[in-house]
Amino acid sequence: MEKDEAFMAEVLNRTAAPRQPSWNTGGLNSATEQVGNWFLNPNWDNSMDQSDPFESALSSMVSSPAAASNVPVSGENVMMRELIGKLGNICNSGDASCYSTPLNSPPRLNLSMVSLPNQTTLAPFSADPGFADRAARLSCFSTGGNFGGLNDPLMDSFKLSPMAGNSGSDKKNTGVSRSSSPENAESGVSKEESSVSQQIPSRNDAGTRKRKSIPRGKAKETPSPAAADDKVASENDESNSKRSKRDGAPAGNGNAKAANDGDEKQSKENSKLPEPPKDYIHVRARRGQATDSHSLAERVRREKISERMKFLQDLVPGCNKVIGKAVMLDEIINYVQSLQRQVEFLSMKLATVNPRMDVNMEALLSKDMFQSRGLLPQGIYSMDSSAQAFPFGYQPQQGQPLNNVIPNITETQFSMKTQGFQLPLINGFTDANPQVGSVWEDDLQSIVQMGFGQNQPQSYQGSITTGQVKIEL
Amino acid sequence: MDSQLLNPTSLKSRFTARFLRALTKINAPNPISSSSPTPREIFQRYRRIKVAADKSMAYSVRSRTTWSRATLSRLRTRSRHRRLASFGPRSSVTTAAVLKKTSSHGKENEGGLGVQAGELRELVPGGEAMDLCNLLDETAHYIKCLTTQVQVMKTIANLYSLE
Fold first, then answer.
1. Which of B4, B45, B63, B150 would best serve as a mutation to test chain A binding (most A beta carbons within 10 A)?
2. Three-state secondary structure of A114-174
């Protein structure tokens, strides 16, 4: 929906700028630090045996830069993407113990991120095939390249991967991009771990939009030890068919640790990809925010509520200037109250006006409802405005049954009639007043004040009690 | 927009049809333009018309929304009250009990909007048992239906005055 995209674009633009400095200053450190924090998150229940695969994966990663150095930027990007994928694996693994092992492996990385202070984070680089895919999906949050201006090759990879990642976007991806939109790829990785599952309320209302992110269930399925680069690449290929850049990747990477279980895991991943779990809403925590499940759920709720408030803002006239939930709610309450009172007032009017049932009401209404569209947008002032629009001394065939007239009338003529009859309507209305007496004078005054606008209460008060109506034009 | 044909199954058409039928039923017993209907008669007619309006709107929405279901059940219990005065208001008691049970759960996460949420719950029928999230959805649908109702009733009133 355009609202989602607008929101996403807005958030992206807002958050794009602060990200870049962190990147340029070796921000990956902070990123991986955060990732490291994620690893120690006790909320995780994923456990991966990653002691061996770390080094193998790392070696593969390390060697790939060497191979990629001869290759133009695309190779680096691919390598970077795999790096992200492996980094994502780290996120998936909930076992904190496995991160202690590969302390020796990071130094082998010749990438710019070697200077990681927290080297445990890079350890479980068992390239999770699932995660590479997830990273690709995550990367799709940068719709339209808010990475402009990044010179770092790392940034290039992140910049390019979103472009490719966007290609295979289905609704899942848009959901992912929406939920993870404020994040850069790095923090998107960090967000992986704090996904929270929520039950999706099954509703088809127009106003509801479902948040979907990469299913967390995939993480549980991908403790693949030997996620080689090409496996990652091929898995990504299968999942996102349009990623053309990836085609060169498998060939480029030399140390493909082809593991059979990796294949199986990939196939499982692929089979799982098309159908995200439908019973849960997966949410990622944003960078710098609390990650326990309660606050995440809370944040999801708040976002849902603000989403609906925005929708209501469009529905209630005159709420565009108001900012803030409390005032908005007040406006909404006032509007609902005024609508309810209008219904009461109109039903009272209908009770007084004696109809002559010799007219085909439904035919009249079916035509008249076209014109009545113009009445409502003016809200409660419609009576006044249409009364103002009555210049002619239109003495209609009030006595005649309108049956004969209606079929001949075009809609425009009919609209003239309906507008012209506002004045006699009010006259007819006041004729009934002396008969009513005091029963509904008070009610009527209050309702009429509501119905006819607050700018003319005095005139109506006086007029109603005396049985005359003066329309202030 | 004026020249658009209305969807015959739209909310507006459904409500209009039902409401007109109810109106003809209400107006039928009255002689045409009997001189000086007493205020009490007018008041009774007003109430009946109001009930008819709410009921026809709730019926047009079927049971898709909580507020429509609440309105329908409320109308039914009220009519049952009127007709069977000897019976106790059993249905209302049970619904109140059910509402009390469910209402406590969903209202926890309102943030600072508790007062307004409470007011909104009073306004929207059936809103007592909903959390803020669903309440806002219901409010949106309710507003849409109310505007339709007002629109149609206005045009009907205009048409009535034409004759």
1. B150
2. HHCCCHHHHCCCCCCHHHHHHHHHHHCCCCCCCCCCCCCHHHHHHHHHHHHHHHCCCHHHH
Burial of B94 (0-12, 13-18, 19+ CB in 10 A): exposed
CA distance A241 to A246: 10
Give which of A210, A250, A43, A33 is closest to A120, Cα–Cα: A33
Do B155 and A372 make contact, defined as CB atoms within 8 angstroms? yes
Complex ipTM? 0.85
- DSSP state, A244? G
Which portions of chain A are predicted below pLDDT 70? 1-279, 281, 285, 354-473
Higher pLDDT, B84 or A242: B84
Query: Does A364 touch chain B if contact means CB atoms closer than 8 Å?
Result: yes
* Residue B58 predicted with pLDDT over 70: yes
Instruction: State CA A454 to chain mean position distance.
Output: 38
Structure confidence at residue B34 (pLDDT)? 59
For residue A361, what pLDDT is reported? 56
- pLDDT tier at B31 (50, 70, 90 boundaries)? low
Distances (CA, A) of B84 to B77, B87, B88, B97: 10, 6, 8, 21
Task: Give the span between the Cα atoms of A32 and A330, in whole angstroms.
Answer: 45
Residue B80 pLDDT > 50, yes or no?
Answer: yes
Asked whether the beta carbons of residue A350 and residue B23 sit closer than 8 angstroms, the reply is yes
Q: Using a CB-CB distance cutoff of 8 angstroms, which residues of chain B are in contact with residue A365?
A: 16, 20, 152, 155-156, 159
Structure tokens at A227: 């996620």
Q: Where are the beta strands (DSSP E) in A26-152?
A: none
Q: Are the beta carbons of A158 and A191 closer than 8 angstroms? A: no
Q: Decide if A350 and B156 are in contact by the 8 Å CB cutoff.
A: yes
Is the Cβ–Cβ distance between A21 and A27 less than 8 Å? yes
**How buried is residue A183: exposed, middle or buried, by Cβ count under 10 Å (0-12/13-18/19+)?**
buried
- The Cα B58–Cα B149 span in angstroms is 11
What are the chain A neighbours of B30 within 8 Å (beta carbons)?
354
Q: Is the pLDDT confidence value at B155 over 60?
A: yes
What is the C-alpha end-to-end distance of chain A, expressed in Å?
43
| Residue A154, beta-bridge partner list | none
CA distance B158 to A460: 19
The verdict on a CB contact (< 8 Å) between A365 and B151 is no
d(CA A55, CA A101): 9
**Which is higher by pLDDT, A437 or B134?**
B134
CB contact under 8 A, B143 and A335: yes
Chain A positions in Cβ-Cβ contact with residue B117 (cut-off 8 Å): 329
**Side chain identity at A13, as an amino acid letter?**
N
Phi, psi (rounded to 5 degrees) for A58? -65, -40
Q: Is A203 helix (H, G, I), strand (E, B) or coil?
A: coil
Q: How much of chain B, in percent, has pLDDT values that exceed 90?
A: 2
